[in-house]
UniProtKB/TrEMBL annotation, chain A:
InterPro entries registered for this protein in UniProt: ABC_Gly_betaine_transp_sub-bd, MetI-like, MetI-like_sf
Domain of life: Bacteria
Subcellular localization: Cell membrane; Membrane
PROSITE patterns for this protein: ABC_TM1 (PS50928)
This protein's name: Glycine betaine/L-proline ABC transporter glycine betaine/L-proline-binding/permease
Protein family membership: In the N-terminal section; belongs to the binding-protein-dependent transport system permease family. In the C-terminal section; belongs to the OsmX family.
Keywords associated with the record: Cell membrane, Membrane, Transmembrane, Transmembrane helix, Transport
Membrane-traversing stretches: 48-67, 73-91, 98-121, 141-168, 220-240, 252-272, 293-315
Taxonomic source organism: Candidatus Enterococcus lowellii
Domain ABC transmembrane type-1: 94-273
UniProtKB/TrEMBL annotation, chain B:
Protein name: Quaternary amine transport ATP-binding protein
SUPFAM superfamilies from the UniProt entry: CBS-domain pair, P-loop containing nucleoside triphosphate hydrolases
Subunit relationships: The complex is probably composed of two ATP-binding proteins, two transmembrane proteins and a solute-binding protein.
Organism (species): Candidatus Enterococcus lowellii
Family: Belongs to the ABC transporter superfamily.
Highest taxon above the source species: Bacteria
Enzyme class of the recorded protein, top EC level: translocase
Native organism taxonomy: Bacteria, Bacillati, Bacillota, Bacilli, Lactobacillales
EC nos: 7.6.2.9
A GO term, aspect molecular function: ATP binding
Domain CBS: 339-396
Amino acid sequence: MLNFLQQPIPVSDWVTNATDWLTNTFAGLFSVLQTIGQFVMEGMTNGLLLVPPLLMLLIVTAVAYFISGKKWGLTAFTFIGLLFIYNQGLWTALMNTVTLVIISSLVSIIIGVPLGILMAKSEKAQSIITPVLDFMQTMPGFVYLIPAVAFFGIGMVPGVFASVIFALPPTVRMTNLGIRQVPTELVEASDSFGGTGKQKLFKLELPLAKSTIFAGINQTIMLALSMVVIASMIGAPGLGQGVLSAVQRSQVGSGFVNGLALVVLAIIMDRFTQNMNRPKSNKEPKTAKQKKVITGAIIAAIVVLVGGTVISSMLGDKKETVNLAYVEWDTEVASTTVVSEVLRDMGYEVNMTPLDNAIMWEAVANGEADGMVAAWLPGTHGTQYEKFKDKVENLGPNLEGGARLGIVVPSYMDVDSIEDLSDQANKTIVGIEPGAGVVSAAEKTVEEYPNLSDWNLMTSSGGAMTTELANAVKNEKEIVITGWSPHWMFSRYDLKYLEDPKGTMGGEESIHTMVRQGLKDDMPEVYNVLDNFSWELEDIEGMMLEIENGTDPVQAARDWMDAHEEIVNSWKQ
Amino acid sequence: MSKVRVEHLTKVFGKKSQQALAMVKENKSKNEIVEKTGATVGVYDASFEVNEGEIFVIMGLSGSGKSTLIRLLNRLIEPSSGNIYIDGEDVSKMTKEQLREVRRHKINMVFQNFGLFPQRTILENTEYGLEVRGVAKEERRQRAEQALDNSGLLSFKDQYPNQLSGGMQQRVGLARALANDPEILLMDEAFSALDPLIRREMQDELLELQQRVQKTIIFITHDLNEALRIGDRIALMKDGQIMQIGTGEEILTNPANDFVREFVEDVDRSKVLTAENIMVPALTTNIEIDGPNVALQRMRKEEVSMLLAVDRKRQLKGSLTAESAREARKNELSLKEVIDKNVQKVHKDTLVSEIFNLIYDSPTPLAVVDDNDRLMGVVIRGTVIGALTDIESKDETTHEGVTTNA
């Protein structure tokens, strides 16, 4: 017994092994699903984007007008809200999010309603499914991202997978509840006339449970929407990426704008689904003509979507698409944007996918991303490189030297070495994202230096860390951070690296370019550019500062490219 | 050949049913059995026959198992043991498919709260039985409309149940069952959710309908009057067991046991009757306010020719006949001047036996007053005669514990 208490049960290993087993066993199935899902969703997004935004805006507004029973409030809100999103240049992101939410909700409904019926019909099923639903609903949504990446890699499909798991329960629960709430007498009436189970279900139970089921579906849509935002960490495109990058770079304004766009979308979706569920005030049965019109409208909508899918897949992508993965650090935003712009000039379609560090490596290794220019070697990403080096191709450094990690303090603090730290700054080192290389190095540092034994390493995000730093410097407070170069903070504030006698933070580093295997044969031009891409510390720091001062990354990249045409041309050789 | 024959039908809900059945045999009460075993005895050892074309009423207090019994007949509830024969075929042994056929063609049900589907129109409700049978749309429309027409509801066919009154809804429930043209109708407290006036109307309608369609009807009620009005034969249930089966007359004249006797008694035998127990509300006119026109108007409305006259404090002042009111109107007199002050008064605690002698001598009803001489009600001849029959059959019970509901 004591033994048992001292030995942790290897639950984590079990789960890992089970997931690995699933990933290997069903690899074929997953990749088929991934392909189909990706095709359908990209088609749908492209279909939605084929419609000119202003026309779409008017259509949705008109639908809002009719669906809300000709109330002006919702109509005006829809119009102004969508106009705002369009004006902020978030239309494409919005359409991506809409696609994700619609597909997630549809899948949830297709799985959830039959499951709810099963639960209502069988006590045993109910007793089995209920705890599973509890588990699904209370497990933090982030957890679902991990197996989602293992199964489907990055992009839309894992986003849908995670959203479905997270958003399914309300539909199941409410379907079950709605059917169980049908009065006994009515069920008896149906039985006493010799109705079969199926007749009872379709003629009595589902029509009566409809409004409860709709309430569940409404909840499901809202949950799917919130999960889609979280799923942007694993490359689900849309408004979530804007929110996430704003969080990681501490940009209040852009976070607010993206968030507001999501609020608008959520309110529109919520009101639409609620109004669909409105009990008809005048219980006039729908005339045949009305039914025809409604059916016609639904068919038309499907035709537009499917047609959009087909058309966009036929004439759209004559351009080849390059997928670049990156981490939302200011260095990588700068370098990845520049590379993307260069490739776009050469006529490629480029998808830049912001991911978490570990997932970025995994994406390139699995060939879901074509490449990245964000590998810090030998130290920072040493672990990842060890793990994936057989599956990626290292094209060498794009930034030689000058890159380094370290423990950084403002110059006004009178410590010069990590060994001098004793009780400054509440014994806290402010770090960035938990998965980042610099954080692993800092963890090692805290372990190695005896004077840091009771220090805390507080993880947050790149943006949160710089905000903390700005506040500390403004108030001349003590602060210790995990820093790295190149970074604009060195141009803006007077900072210094602490000496690292034990070398735990690593020495000078280079930033390397990694591409997936087989890129050379598939896209020799792209491979070539990535292979040639390299620049100097002042290039990148100058561009980073420009971005930090409020220039749009794409604009900053363009400015830099205009100023350095020779370098850019040398990459294209 | 009986239409429905039930033999030793038993239903126990819950586990430990054997133990519960053993306790039933020992005549333990329902509560005791539930406390001991957790099992509820719904119906115990019921046996009876219902003949073709008769209205067979099952009566009992709530919890006596009558609703369970009727649901056992079409197997909405599965019996624990026993057999049900319809036309000689054992329903309790049938497969699902056979049972479905029986339910579709032979036996239909009308429910206490109507059991109408709220999302379907009246017409769609009525044709439901035909719809699940797979009858073609045109034909089922026609038959449903015919059934609605018979109950005078055709003009409401496109309305929804919640737009109709209770009585109408129950007519729809009945039409829905009849559209199917079943041989047996089960009616589970079909009129209990209706108000008394509509209820009587529906009872009459049912009897009239029965003249025309000659169905076998098994009717459940907890109301003795209803049972006596419509039942050809009555079965009385208590705690899941049938106490007695017979015509209304048989049950009233030869109650099988004390329970039946008490059940059919209109009057609580533990009480010694006083004027207060048998009085009915008085029809009054307030002579300080009303004039002759008002008094006459009230007489017309209540279909009487006489009112009791009171003042503001409901003190009895006399009686007013239609003639004197008309006279007052003609001669423009006030009511005070024309009332007959000679009214027989009795105190509310006066015993019925004393009232007999008074009421024979009095042309007008007796006014019942309380200690402060306030009018409480009147005693009319009919009620006294009703009371008299009970008194005669009553043993001289003690006068202790006499309660009056003031």
